[in-house]
Amino acid sequence: MNSIVANLMQVRARIELAALAAKREPEEIELLAVSKTFPASAVEEAMHAGQSAFGENYVQEAVEKIEKLAKLRPWLTWHFIGPLQSNKTREVAQHFDWVHSVDRLKIAERLSTQRGEFPDLPPLMVCAQVNVSDEDSKSGVSLSEVEGLCNAITALPNLVLRGLMAIPEPSSDPAQQRKAFAAVRDCFLKIQTAHAVELGYQFFDTLSMGMSDDLEAAIAEGSSIVRVGTAIFGKRDKISK
Ligand SMILES: *Cc1c(COP(=O)(O)O)cnc(C)c1O
Question: Per the domain annotation, does 175 fall within a domain?
């Protein structure tokens, strides 16, 4: 069995190679370690190997982990990346640094209001989630609607719009993977260009895309945050689906 430390080194090497192949600087790509379903001790182990950004999908599980690791909080960045229901936004607003999965205005409004109840916290960093494969079952707004959602988010006081997030339909064909990521990148660049001088868009710099099985394709198409779980922590039990 591989250790978390060895896995992390391997994933970092994959990121570096993919960046070089795409003629990009490896430092442009942040590794988000997706620790959902794994215990606080696994996060600690990764942290000792130099990993500081962690992603979680399930609010209850995440908050327990964050509280367990409260002493390490100053060194960690917690990203919420899962589907978010409105009755769970308060806990996310209180405990997280980032939310990648904002897919409707109501959720953004609640996050902004509730973040405001913690004046000691900086604004919450958010990405709008795009449904690039247009599957009915997946969360995210369509490519045609995402600019409208972004404009609305920039008007909210306690959120900072950082970019777009996408989870394309899984495919084992690298060309297919790249096609989906390229569509998200094109949409991202279009929004970035159209709003280049507008207040609220000055930090729009993030493309959150790519996971264990398709991070190379995502980096080739401009990803700036890859969200990697399995390749770091191993296979998850069934509850994570
Ligand atoms: C679970 C999850 C990941 C990590 O997936 P792996 O295939 O285990 O790397 C990334 N992003 C989101 C949104 C997830 O839910």
Answer: yes
pLDDT digits (tens, 9 = 90+) for 173-222: 999 999 999 999 999 999 999 999 999 999 999 999 999 999 999 999 99
Assess whether the C-beta atom of 153 lies below 6 angstroms from ligand 1: no
* Residue 69 CB–ligand 1 contact under 6 Å: no
Q: Which domain holds residue 100?
A: 3-233
CA of 114 from ligand 1 middle (Å) equals 26
The total of structural domains in the chain comes to 1
Q: What is the mean pLDDT of residues 147-155?
A: 98
Residue 71 lies in a domain: yes
Contacts 24+ apart (CB under 8 A), 80-85: 80/55, 80/56, 81/32, 81/34, 81/55, 81/56, 81/57, 81/165, 81/208, 81/227, 82/36, 82/56, 82/57, 82/58, 83/57, 83/139, 84/59
**What is the per-residue pLDDT across 59-103, written as a single tens digit (0 to 9) for each?**
999 999 999 999 999 999 999 999 999 999 999 999 999 999 999
Q: What is the CATH number of the domain that holds 81?
A: 3.20.20.10
Choose between 2 and 203: higher pLDDT.
203
Is residue 208 assigned to a domain?
yes
